[in-house]
């Protein structure tokens, strides 16, 4: 069966047993569909291939790969007697290969269906999609960082430990905290680390059985309650008031001997700095509990304020947000946790210590003078991200980081000022931090939803903002431009959103409800994907059967 | 500052448009006493050249794996990664994109995740795989939690051949969640009696193969016993290349397969970032942690891909979610899938044979050195040797001679009385000269 590019739609078996049996009719139909891209806007000029100039269709690897092809030249070893105890693999694996030029083309074409920061404005609120400097990539690839093994003798990795120590010093200095646990692999993993430190501290006080409640504001990231619940805490919500803030009275009302901690995001997910944060911290501490701060929005205040001064006991820092390590399509991230004096002794292994003969790596709890609560991950965490983050910090310096925070906040407020007359601000027209939150009140009676606006933005060449988060606001649109945008870029963005807003209000529904019209795909059916999950490619049925 | 596009003129105009005089008026909600008056006590900005000098100096203080005869493994392996891989993952559209929440402009990421899931399912011999975990160790922690959800039991049994860091990650998570864990004694020979530990209260048995000491383990009897008692078998691997030659965990009855994917496509990176592989049977899909990519169609009926089954996840379920995971290891998964595409079935199997053959050669040569005893009956590309002197001391002496010989077991299991044991790995990277250098250096030191 050939598709319209003249390629077979399943790998050629070439002597390997054919794994192509057993694919259902429905999958086979999809198979056919995959190779025909229809487009309502170009209907009068169909192409033979289905491609549209630079917009190329790319089949799945499994439809173009071959089981006898490899793009890696390796010599067969000399004959040997295996020592696998009779556990050799007997069945074929089912992994088609491509030659090197085909591989290059396959992935380059896939990449062209993606939107990245380098493509255009990416105002995804709470995700801090700032410029990813290529200097940082180059530094992370120095063989002295990328080509060293985590279990090499410590004497052979002194520079790597120096880098970790220096990164830790920067993070502790910027936050005015006592210690840092570098190893968590992402933001949510950092949250888990911080909450584990809190749990360990509470157990050390002998209150492990009685203090089991964690207060989480309704506006929090979903990871906060999920993290607390994961290690057995009972989550109790705290409302955000109509002004978007958490009020100290509401926290106090819920405080008691059963409360272990509060998990508060500051600046919060509504894009606002919590003005009562110091009072909340004091109330929490007076009640014998700890203050976990979600540091996802640290980018607004780096160099402007120090979380340690606000009374924070633990805070994770998303190196992939604030310190610009690339998001990479969803990871890898890195989530170091800074800890107050009260929690520092419980930081997990491993950690770096300056010894008299150079840096030491404490890998076992038994080697520590402190009381590490355990281990978060194998080895020492996301070294590749540490290098990139330190490269960012060295480049910016204390002055550049402060300027970056100010520019991030300035840019968000500039967008607020440019749109506040047409779009609705749920908490009034007051200064925001590095992101500005709109609700969907301005769309009332237009028949257009937040989702529709997002999809129409795609047609205009933008990545949409964060939608429907935070949950405390109806139809939320959270816009975070970051400091990486120029004034002219923001001016065009504001003009575009104004045009969209006017169009929505003037009844041009079609521009929204059918959008996107110009993306590599029209709107995708997520319900269908969830109802009948197809999570991997399965070989098509033989043509004869499929035709019946 | 080269990264900041705004000029001072821009800033003034923008402040005027907003209607404030200074940027600090935008920080009005920060209590005045907490707003910093001075820049933080760190150095000022630096040009690219200066940053390169500082970081290159640090990098130069490390001995890189490619520069010496290198035999270190124990959960992270030195393999050759084709140049194509690193080029492709640095394409802006892959490198600087986000989790594909807007699928219409993220089909590149979604399609490779779908291909990745298919490859991982095939490699492990399982029905479905997710879009990756942080790494093998955290994936193992998540697998245990998943087994608890499936079986509604809360006791895990960990094999003594499980990588000690992995075991520690599971224990840390379990202690915090008040779940119970039975950890078997370190099992150097791969002959522990784990079957006797499985009973009707067991949620899961966690067994690594090849195990941390290198032994290739027969998982079938363990799967049978586990299933008889309503428990799950979690099969772990830390060397993905082994699956090119060794029977898949799926074919041996595993219920969840979790492993480290670093070996395919990813550098050593001093321990991270890596990529966790996670696969299971179809019936457990809704209990799986992590992102899942699924096939669907768009409004014109064209095939496309989306993140799916997100009702399991934290941003929907909050404290009822299957996991708190948000980020996966996207770019490392991309590196894995590109390298796997280049290898194909043919290349992967050949690579695995070369690894096994090299390790056999090395084992035979080391067995001829006085004061060295090779302990393994079975192994893939890593095995355990018993030395006449403490392994940590020997490794240090060999490092001084420019040979990175392996991992002393005492570094992973201090106080276990295994100070004379050394884990030695050999991949396709090792040449005859490398092996000769190790043998010669060992003869001098022992």
From TrEMBL, chain B:
InterPro entries: GcvPA (IPR023010), GDC-P_N (IPR049315), GDC_P (IPR020581), PyrdxlP-dep_Trfase (IPR015424), PyrdxlP-dep_Trfase_major (IPR015421), PyrdxlP-dep_Trfase_small (IPR015422)
UniProt-listed Enzyme Commission number(s): 1.4.4.2
Keywords: Oxidoreductase
Catalytic activity reported: N(6)-[(R)-lipoyl]-L-lysyl-[glycine-cleavage complex H protein] + glycine + H(+) = N(6)-[(R)-S(8)-aminomethyldihydrolipoyl]-L-lysyl-[glycine-cleavage complex H protein] + CO2
CDD domains assigned to the protein according to its UniProt record, in alphabetical order: GDC-P (cd00613)
Stretches assigned to the Glycine cleavage system P-protein N-terminal domain: 1-402
Name of the top EC class for this enzyme: oxidoreductase
Family of the protein in this entry: Belongs to the GcvP family. N-terminal subunit subfamily.
Function: The glycine cleavage system catalyzes the degradation of glycine. The P protein binds the alpha-amino group of glycine through its pyridoxal phosphate cofactor; CO(2) is released and the remaining methylamine moiety is then transferred to the lipoamide cofactor of the H protein.
NCBIfam families: PRK00451.1
HAMAP family, alphabetized: GcvPA (MF_00712)
Assembly information from the UniProt record: The glycine cleavage system is composed of four proteins: P, T, L and H. In this organism, the P 'protein' is a heterodimer of two subunits.
Protein name as annotated: Probable glycine dehydrogenase (decarboxylating) subunit 1
Gene it is expressed from: gcvPA
């Amino acid at each position: 069966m050939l598709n319209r590019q003249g390629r077979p739609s399943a790998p050629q078996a070439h002597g390997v047993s054919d794994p192509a049996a057993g694919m259902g009719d429905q999958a086979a139909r999809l198979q056919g569909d995959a190779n025909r891209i229809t487009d309502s806007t170009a209907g009068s000029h169909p192409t033979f291939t289905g491609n549209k100039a630079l917009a190329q269709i790319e089949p799945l690897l499994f439809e173009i790969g071959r089981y006898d092809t490899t793009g890696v030249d390796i010599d067969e070893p000399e004959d040997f007697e295996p020592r696998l105890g009779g556990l050799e693999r007997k069945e074929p694996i089912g992994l088609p290969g491509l030659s090197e030029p085909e591989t290059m083309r396959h992935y380059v074409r896939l990449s062209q269906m993606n939107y990245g920061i380098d493509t255009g404005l990416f105002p995804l609120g709470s995700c801090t999609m700032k410029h990813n400097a290529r200097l940082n990539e180059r530094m992370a690839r120095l063989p002295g960082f990328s080509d060293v093994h985590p279990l090499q003798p410590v004497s052979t990795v002194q520079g790597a430990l120096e880098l970790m120590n220096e990164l830790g010093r920067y993070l502790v200095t910027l936050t005015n905290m006592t210690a840092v646990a570098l190893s968590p692999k992402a933001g949510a993993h950092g949250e888990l680390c911080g909450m584990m430190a809190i749990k360990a501290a509470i157990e050390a006080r002998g209150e492990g059985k009685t203090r089991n409640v964690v207060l989480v504001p309704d506006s929090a990231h979903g990871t906060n309650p999920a993290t607390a619940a994961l290690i057995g805490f009972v989550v109790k919500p705290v409302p955000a008031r109509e002004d978007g803030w958490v009020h100290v009275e509401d926290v106090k009302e819920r405080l008691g001997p059963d409360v272990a901690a509060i998990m508060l995001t500051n600046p919060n997910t509504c894009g606002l700095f919590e003005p009562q944060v110091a009072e909340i911290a004091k109330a929490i501490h007076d009640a014998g509990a700890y203050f976990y701060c979600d540091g996802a929005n640290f980018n607004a205040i780096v160099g402007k304020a120090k979380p340690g001064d606000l009374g924070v006991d633990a805070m994770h820092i998303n190196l992939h947000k604030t310190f610009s390590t690339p998001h990479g399509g969803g990871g890898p991230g890195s989530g170091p946790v800074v800890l107050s004096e009260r929690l520092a002794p419980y930081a997990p292994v491993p950690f770096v210590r300056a010894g008299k003969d150079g840096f030491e790596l404490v890998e076992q709890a038994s080697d520590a003078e402190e009381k590490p609560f355990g281990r978060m991950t194998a080895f020492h965490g996301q070294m590749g991200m540490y290098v990139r983050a330190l490269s960012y910090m060295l480049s910016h310096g204390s002055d550049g980081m402060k300027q970056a925070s100010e520019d991030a906040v300035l840019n968000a407020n500039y967008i607020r000022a440019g749109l506040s007359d047409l779009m609705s601000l749920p908490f009034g027209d007051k200064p925001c931090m590095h992101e500005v939150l709109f609700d969907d009140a301005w769309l009332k009676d237009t028949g257009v939803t937040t989702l529709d606006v997002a999809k129409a933005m795609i047609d205009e060449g933008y990545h949409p903002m964060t939608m429907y988060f935070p949950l405390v606001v109806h139809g939320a649109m959270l816009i975070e431009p970051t400091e990486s945008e120029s004034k002219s870029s923001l001016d065009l963005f504001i003009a575009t959103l104004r045009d969209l807003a006017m169009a929505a209000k003037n009844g041009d529904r079609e521009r929204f409800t059918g959008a996107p019209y110009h993306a590599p795909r029209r709107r995708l059916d997520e319900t269908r994907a969830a109802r009948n999950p197809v999570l991997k490619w399965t070989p098509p049925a033989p043509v004869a059967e499929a035709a019946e | 500052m080269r990264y900041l596009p705004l000029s001072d003129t821009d800033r003034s105009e923008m402040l005027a448009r907003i209607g404030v005089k200074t940027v600090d008026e935008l920080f009005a909600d920060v209590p005045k006493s907490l707003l910093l008056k001075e820049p933080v006590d760190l150095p000022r900005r630096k040009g690219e050249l200066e940053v390169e000098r500082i970081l290159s100096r640090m990098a130069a203080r490390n001995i890189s794996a490619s520069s010496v005869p290198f035999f270190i493994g124990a959960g992270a392996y030195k393999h050759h990664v084709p140049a194509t891989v690193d080029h492709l993952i640095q394409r802006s559209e892959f490198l600087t994109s986000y989790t594909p929440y807007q699928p219409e402009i993220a089909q590149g990421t979604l399609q490779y995740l779908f291909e990745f899931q298919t490859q991982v399912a095939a490699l492990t011999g399982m029905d479905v795989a997710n879009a990756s975990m942080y790494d093998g160790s955290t994936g193992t922690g998540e697998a245990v939690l998943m087994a608890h959800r499936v079986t509604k039991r809360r006791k895990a049994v960990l094999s003594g051949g499980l990588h000690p860091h992995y075991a520690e990650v599971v224990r840390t998570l379990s202690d915090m969640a008040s779940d119970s864990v039975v950890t078997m004694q370190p099992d150097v020979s791969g002959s522990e009696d784990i079957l006797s530990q499985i009973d009707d209260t067991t949620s899961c048995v966690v067994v690594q193969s090849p195990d941390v000491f290198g032994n290739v383990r027969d998982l079938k009897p363990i799967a049978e016993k586990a299933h008889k008692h309503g428990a799950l078998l979690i099969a772990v691997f830390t060397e993905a290349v082994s699956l090119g030659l060794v029977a898949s965990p799926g074919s041996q009855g595993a219920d969840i397969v979790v492993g480290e994917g670093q070996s395919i496509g990813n550098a050593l990176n001093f321990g991270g970032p890596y990529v966790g592989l996670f696969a299971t049977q179809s019936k457990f899909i809704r209990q799986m942690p992590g992102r899942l990519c699924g096939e669907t169609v768009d409004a014109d009926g064209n095939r496309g891909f989306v993140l799916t089954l997100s009702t399991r996840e934290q941003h929907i379920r909050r404290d009822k979610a299957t996991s708190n995971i948000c980020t996966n290891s996207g770019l490392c998964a991309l590196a894995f899938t590109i390298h796997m595409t280049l290898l194909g079935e043919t290349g992967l199997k050949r690579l695995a044979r070369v690894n096994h053959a090299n390790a056999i050669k090395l084992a035979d040569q080391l067995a001829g050195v006085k004061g060295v005893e090779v302990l393994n009956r079975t192994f893939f590309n890593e095995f355990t040797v018993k030395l006449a002197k403490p392994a940590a001391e020997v490794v240090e002496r060999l490092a001084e001679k420019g040979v990175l010989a392996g991992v002393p077991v005492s570094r992973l299991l201090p106080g276990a009385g295994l100070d004379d044991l050394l884990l030695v790995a050999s991949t396709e990277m090792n040449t005859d000269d490398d092996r000769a250098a190790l043998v010669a250096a060992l003869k001098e030191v022992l």
